[in-house]
Amino acid sequence: MEDAGIVEELGVLDGLYHSDFSVEFRDGVSCETYGADQFAGLVDQCDDFIFRRRLVGKVIVLAARPSPQQIAMIIALIRRGIVFALTNPSSQENAVASILSDERYEGTGLVVVSLDERGFDCAAMAIGQEKRGEGDVLCLATTSGTTGTPKVVEFTKSALKLSLNGVLSVTGRPVWSSRVLLAQSVEFDGFFEELFCVLECGGTAIIPLHAVGSRPDFLLSCLDEWRITCIDLPTAVFNTFGTYLAGRQANGFASRMCGGVTFVIGGQRFLPPAVEAIGKVFPNASVVNTYGPTEATITCAAAVIWAHGAWRASGQLIGWTYPGVNSKLIYDGRQMSESGVLVLGGCAVEGAPAASLSVEDGAAWLDTGDLVSVSERGYVFERRKGGFIKVGGRRVDLAAVRAELEDVTGTMVRPEPAVSARGLDHLRILVVRSPDCADSHLVRALRRSPSLLGVPTEIDLVDRLGLSEVGKG
After folding, report:
1. Alpha carbons 191 and 180: distance in angstroms, whole number
2. CB 118 within 8 A of CB 67
């Protein structure tokens, strides 16, 4: 096993990013590369902008697409200890609204810093008291999460260090010091987390200027032509990519990429056939399944589920929680040893909104709502408690959805999880036809239902409902 390069002190926090750090901005076949020396001058320019505009003590919403100037501003903000959030220009209003609606940031002086071809500009969105980084707070993630409820989660220095070292310790390889493809959009928390890890470990961040996750064929060519050694993907995208490869293999595709790519996934269930299909194309690949609820943002557990062409796990293994993360299993109010709802404490939840936490004996705990069992290699995710499932990155209460849809349509309805031929997870809605309502009216009523907003849905009209997977109508 290689030296994982466990990080003891985070140099990034002092503006001392790794001297081997570099970024490649990729647009099709063209490539623009910036190394640590080139960033030094840009960071100084951003630091001067911060000083002239008196941004110290404010909360910054950096509304900018990936560019050398954006990366330099991130480094400058870290160096100055200024709390900030990342977003695309088109999403800046949502980010501002989320921050100002959080009681921790009510009355805070907030400034939007935007970037276009002319350079940086800023506009005060809220004039209020100064808000310096309080202790460990470094960056904010504005997210609606899987619940659809807008919230602000704080990235803390200790949690970032925990996440950084967690994957390194699980893989035993310095995955962040190699060629890392940042495939997630800038407004998602994963973008900053991955960039931070590469900054710290001296790797090369490859930033595509066009989305790769929605195009499996493009992603395959990127991994090969750009010599990617590590990529962090939402599990839904990973499943789609693996299903695409399985379809290509069924039609005679037999390409084998010899590079040792590490796929870091997390967020929901992985599809075993997708893992196996990727393993056939990338025989030296490793697949690491990470775990961390939205409220915690940073991962707090991980496990290698595939390596060297073979399974390293059974079931939906998420591994043991990292050192420094407290965990326990609770069922019906009692602490269990073999299975139960996973409850987290310690630095895994220190950035979570207070409303998400409970306090016991002076310690904060987060009920993840995830039922897990214990195996020799760690926790295994079984299902969400209650009637919740995860569809398209959103938590869905099947019982509540069914009740609402039956009330809207006046007929029998059964929602159930499904996976398309392309590996896309979605909600399949079985609807019994009604003699009192035209099919088109039923479908229109379902499409307008609030419970389905943002949830990928397939609607099937049937004459009657058969038995479900558990034998019920």
Report:
1. 11
2. no
* Residue 460: per-residue pLDDT: 87
Residue 308 domain-assigned (yes or no): no
Contact 196, 159 (CB under 8 A): no
Query: At a CB cut-off of 8 Å and minimum separation 6, what does 248 contact?
Result: none
| Structure confidence at residue 472 as a pLDDT band (50, 70, 90) | very low
pLDDT tens digits, 128-150:
555 544 557 888 987 655 455 66
Residue 432 lies in a domain: yes
- Is residue 159 assigned to a domain? no
Residue numbers of the domain that contains 398: 388-462
The whole-model pTM stands at 0.81
Residue 405 lies in a domain: yes
Tally of domains in the chain: 1
Check which CATH number belongs to the domain holding 438 and give it.
3.30.300.30
Q: Which two tokens stand for residue 272?
A: 């075993």
